[in-house]
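Dear U.,

For the methods section draft, I wanted the exact inputs and outputs in one place so we can describe them consistently. I've listed the two proteins in the order they'll appear in the manuscript figures. Please don't edit the C-alpha cell lines directly; just add comments below if something needs changing.

First protein:
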Amino acid sequence: MAHLPYPSETEQPYFLAINRFIKKKNISTIITAYSEYHQNHPSRAWDLILCGDGELRPQIETQIRELNLSQHIHLPGFLQPNELLSYFAHASCFIHASIQEQWGLVVNEAMAAGLPVIVSRCCGCFDELVIEEVNGFGFDGNQPSELANLMLRISSPNFDIGKMKLASLEHISQFGPSFFAEGLHKAVQYALIQKV
C-alpha cells in the first residue's frame, strides 16, 4: 500500500471509512465502488482511507492490488480513538457500507466531526441520521455502482459540500445523550407494560 501521510499533512480531500474488516461491514463493495469512481475520473478522484483491521485484511489488500489502486486506497490499520480524531477532522466525506448493523455509531461520530455521510440503507441508523441530499445520501449496500455515483457526485467541484457538512453537525446535535436516555426510558416502560 502507498505511504499515507498523517491526515494533517495532506490537504487533499479523501473519503473515510472506519470498520472492523469482517464480511458484514461490506468493505469489498466500497473498494469495488471506488474502483469504478476512480476509473471514471482519475484526475480528480479523491483517495480512500479504510481504517481498521480484521480477518479480511489479506483479501482486502489483494483486491486493492488487483485493481491497481494501491496508490489511492490506504490502510492505516487499527487506530485508537484519539488517533482517529485527525482522520475525521481532515476527511471530506464518510462512507458506511454495512449490510447488517443495528445502528452504526461511527456514523454519529462522523457527523459530529462535520462530515457528510454516505450510508447503506441496511444500517440501522440510516432512517434517523441521514437526510437525503441534506447531510448525506443512502445507497443499496449490494450496488457498488450506486455508491460510485454518489462518490462522484459529492466530490464534484460544483457540489456544495460545506452546506452538507453544516447540516450534519446540526442534525447530529439532536442525538445527544438525552435522546438515547429517552429511548431507553421508553423501552423500559414498554417492557414493564408487557409484563402486566
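Second protein (the one for the lower panel):
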Amino acid sequence: MIGNHHFGNVGDVWKHLLTCAILDEERPDRFWETHAGAARYAMDEADERQFGAGRYLARSRDVPALDSATYTTLFSEANDSRTDPETYLGSPALAMGVLGDAADYYFFDVDPGCLDSIREEASRRDCSSAVNAVPADGLSGVAAGIAADGDGTDVVHVDPFETFAATDPAGLTPIELFADVAARGDVALLWYGFESAEAIERRWEHVREEVREQLDDASSAWCGELALEAPANHGLSTDPGLVGSHLLCAGLSPETEQRCRELGDAIAAAYDHGDFPGDQRGGLSFTVRTP
C-alpha cells in the first residue's frame, strides 16, 4: 500500500471535508501540501475506513449540508455506489477536483508511488502542466517555495507525520511553518490527530501556546475539533483509527469560517446515534477552539 496507511479514517474525512470547502471558498492561485500521500486509494473492510469514509458517504445523503458539500460530490463521483465505495480520494485528487487547472499545485512526498499517483491523477484531470509532484521533504520545500513565489494567493496544508517535532533538516517544525504562512497573509492549515482522550487537551494546550507565541494576532486562528463522544470505547472490539483530530486554520475569510462551522455541525449530526462496527456506540462531537 502506498501513502497513508490510515487513509479514510474519520480524521482523514474531517480534514478533507474542510479542505475542499476552504479551497472552494478561497479559490487560491496556488495550493501547497507538505506530505501529500497518494491521489487515490482502494477502499477495504478495515474498521477505521468503514467507520470513517464508508459511513460518511452513506449517511451524508441524509444531511443536506453534507450532501451538497464539495467533498461529498467529488467522493461520490469517484464511486458507483455511496453505500459500498471502492475508491477513496486523497487530498491531491480532491484539490485538483476543486480547482482544476485554475491553480498551480505543489505536492511534496518522499514516496515514489505517491508521486506517480499524483502525476496520473493530473493527467486524468487534464491539468498536468499545473501540477508539481516534488520528491522532497515538504516542510523545507514549502518554506522555500512560498518565500520565492510572486503575486497571488496561497493555501498551504501542513500535514506532517510528527506535528511537534523538528524533523526537517533545517530544524523547522510544522507549527513554525504554519505560523510563517499565516504571517504572510496566506491561508495556513495544520492537521493533526490524537489517539487517546487524554491527548486532546494536552495537544491543544501545546498548540495554543505555540500559536500565541508565534502569531502576532492569534485571534486570526481557528480550530475545528472532531472527536468521538465515547473515546473509552476505543480499541475494545474495533478500531476507529483516531479518537479525534484538529484542523487548525489561519487566514480564512469570515464566510469560509462559517462554512467550516456548518460542516462541523453537519458531520456530527450524520454520526449521531451511530455504531462502530462491532455494535459499539460511535457518535462524534464538533467543537470550535480558538487560541
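Candidate sentences for the figure legend, describing the second protein: The radius of gyration is 18 Å. The chain is about 40% helix and 20% strand.

Thanks,
Y.
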